[in-house]
C-alpha cells in the first residue's frame, strides 16, 4: 500500500534515501567537455532524448569548436547539422544568438549567474540551473524537467504544475546538499521504472511510499487522471 510520510520533508528524505541505494552512480547523462558544449547540449535536449543529443553532439562538437564558430555559423547549415533534433530550426537560431551574446557581452565565456544565463536565447531556468551546477559548480536550485515534474507530483511532494512553482516547493523540503543529486535520481527512476504512461509500480522501490501507486490508488497524481 502506498502511504506517504507524515510531512513532505520526511517523504522527500525517504525517497532520496531509497533512490540513492537504487542508483548509486546517478549523474548527468549528457556528454560534454567544456561549459560551451554543456550549454549547447542542454539547449538541444529540450523535448529531446539525451541519447539523441549525445549522438548529434559527437559530430557537432568536432565541427564547431569555439564560441566564434557558432556565432558566425551559417544558419541553414547549423540547422542541418542538428536536423535530427526536435525543433532544430529554432534551436539553431538560439545557439547562434546565444553564442553572439556570449562573445559580445561576456568576453567569450559562458556566464555564471542565473540572470545572465537566462538572458541568452533559448535558455530558461532549467537550462541555466544545469549549466550552473555542472559547468560552474554553483547550485542555486533544483532542475525540474519532465521526470522531476511527474515524479514529484506522483509522490506527493508537490501539487503544483509549473516547473517554477514545483522548484519552489522542492527547494523548501529537499536539503540543499541534495538539490543537484535529486534531479539525477528522479531522471534515472523516471526512465527505468516510473514512466509517464505505464509505470512499473509492482517493481518500484518507492511503491509503499507512493500515493499514486497503481496497486491501490485510483488516480495518477501527476496528471490528475484515473489509472486505466
From TrEMBL:
PANTHER family: A/G-SPECIFIC ADENINE GLYCOSYLASE/ENDONUCLEASE III, ENDONUCLEASE III. It catalyses: 2'-deoxyribonucleotide-(2'-deoxyribose 5'-phosphate)-2'-deoxyribonucleotide-DNA = a 3'-end 2'-deoxyribonucleotide-(2,3-dehydro-2,3-deoxyribose 5'-phosphate)-DNA + a 5'-end 5'-phospho-2'-deoxyribonucleoside-DNA + H(+); Hydrolyzes mismatched double-stranded DNA and polynucleotides, releasing free thymine. Binds 1 [4Fe-4S] cluster. Its cofactor is [4Fe-4S] cluster. This is Endonuclease III. InterPro entries: DNA_glycosylase, Endonuclease3_FeS-loop_motif, HhH-GPD_domain, HhH_base_excis_C, HhH_motif, Nth. SMART domains: ENDO3c (SM00478), FES (SM00525). Belongs to the Nth/MutY family. One of its GO terms (molecular function) is G/T mismatch-specific thymine-DNA glycosylase activity. Its EC number is 4.2.99.18. DNA repair enzyme that has both DNA N-glycosylase activity and AP-lyase activity. The DNA N-glycosylase activity releases various damaged pyrimidines from DNA by cleaving the N-glycosidic bond, leaving an AP (apurinic/apyrimidinic) site. The AP-lyase activity cleaves the phosphodiester bond 3' to the AP site by a beta-elimination, leaving a 3'-terminal unsaturated sugar and a product with a terminal 5'-phosphate. Residues 44-192 form the HhH-GPD domain. Pfam families: EndIII_4Fe-2S, HHH, HhH-GPD. GO terms for biological process: base-excision repair, AP site formation. The keyword Cell wall biogenesis/degradation does not apply. Keywords: 4Fe-4S, DNA damage, DNA repair, DNA-binding, Endonuclease, Glycosidase, Hydrolase, Iron, Iron-sulfur, Lyase, Metal-binding, Nuclease. It comes from the Archaea. [4Fe-4S] cluster binds at residues 194, 201, 204, 210.
